[in-house]
Amino acid sequence: MPTPTKGARLGGSPAHERLMLANLATSLFQHGRIKTTETKARRLRPLAEQLITKAKRGDLAARRRVLTVVRDKDVVYALFDQIAPRYANRNGGYTRIVKVGPRKGDNAPMAVIELVEELQVAEPKANQKTAGRKAAQQDKVEALAPAEETPAARSGDQDAEAPVSASGDTAAAREDSDLATEEGKA
């Protein structure tokens, strides 16, 4: 648990606050996002991030530590086997808090706290740059390479469309120019 804050607790006693944060964390891991007050979301964020960090370790001691806070074994299983592996290459910042409008009734400021989605396994930054350059170079090579001839063009069918190269000449025109240069050499 994070260090208790000074001042008024969220619901009364420190024990009630711990239980409330544990329930919020359970709901967050179960649903991926929850809507609550801004104050509760801010207090939940450090706890949720610590639990995900412990789940990334994946050992028995970490699982037992998480079980002291999150009492639902199904949620702990999901945390260790589904949520934590998504953040294997991330060192923190697993949650996001987005402010939404005030609650109708008591005008309390509301927020949505959600798990940040890790869409793909990220490569190291240097490799991403070189991979992007290599892909761009490959595209250039493919664009500049002469197009393959179709079987109709090889058979000499003039009505069939002849492939056009990057310079704009057709395969038939290239064959004629190749023959002319060969005759000139002979």
List keywords for this structure.
50s Ribosomal Protein L17, Chain: A; Large ribosomal subunit protein bL17; ribosomal protein; mainly alpha; 186 residues; Ribosomal_bL17_CS; 7 helices; 3-stranded antiparallel sheet; Ribosomal_bL17_sf
Q: What is the radius of gyration?
A: 31 Å
**Derived structural class:** mainly alpha
Largest sheet: 3 strands, antiparallel
Please name the CATH architecture of one domain.
Answer: Alpha-Beta Complex
Task: Write the H/E string, N to C.
Answer: HEHHHEEHHH
- Taken as a percent bin, the fraction of beta residues is 5-15%
Mean pLDDT: 80
Low-confidence stretches: none
Question: How many strand elements?
Answer: 3
What's the number of helices? 7
> Between the first and last Cα atoms, what is the distance in angstroms?
89 Å
- The dominant shape is elongated
Percent in helix: 40-55%
Please give the order of strands in the largest beta sheet: 1-3-2
CATH class of one domain: Alpha Beta
Please identify which CATH superfamily of one domain we are dealing with: Ribosomal protein L17
CATH fold assignment of one domain: 50s Ribosomal Protein L17, Chain: A
Structure in words:
The mean pLDDT is 80. The longest helix has 20 residues. The protein has a three-stranded antiparallel sheet. It contains seven helices and three strands; from the N terminus they run αβαααββααα. With 186 residues, the chain is mainly alpha-helical. The chain has a domain of 102 residues: Alpha-Beta Complex (50s Ribosomal Protein L17, Chain: A). The N and C termini lie far apart (89 Å).
